[in-house]
Amino acid sequence: MTAVAPSPRLAVRAVIVQGGRLLIVNAYPGEESDLWCAPGGGVERGQSLHDNLMREIREELDLTIAVAEPCLVNEFQDPGTGFHQVDVYFRAQIVAGSPQPGWVDAAGVVNRHRFVTEAALRALRFKPDSLPQVAFGGRGHILYDPLEEIVR
Length: 152
Prior knowledge:
It contains 3 helices and 9 strands, in the order E-E-E-E-H-E-E-E-H-E-H-E. The chain is an alpha/beta fold.
């Protein structure tokens, strides 16, 4: 009998742009990586994607957001472990709160956050590769990033 691989993990992420700058996070405990991404996280059963995203942003950054349209579907995998994740990105805006320099994510996942311009983002190591296009490009269509290998 062969083992059945688990279903892909589903996650949601927020593309929050204010004043021409994108909110990004480093979600590696203990600053063990220099990889940046959009804030968000895993989906819990029984909640809508919007509700999950609002919860994740509240937990990670103590912000209240309004979630708008989806703008990207990205998937990645770790061939060595079989891990496979599908991220659905939504445009969002902050409706209450402001990212605070000393804020500590209670779960200890997000250790840093910042707003960056497109040029500053491109000078960093980030994922997914299409993040600048999604954040700073035109609106009105959903991008799809096909399966890529995980980066740490």
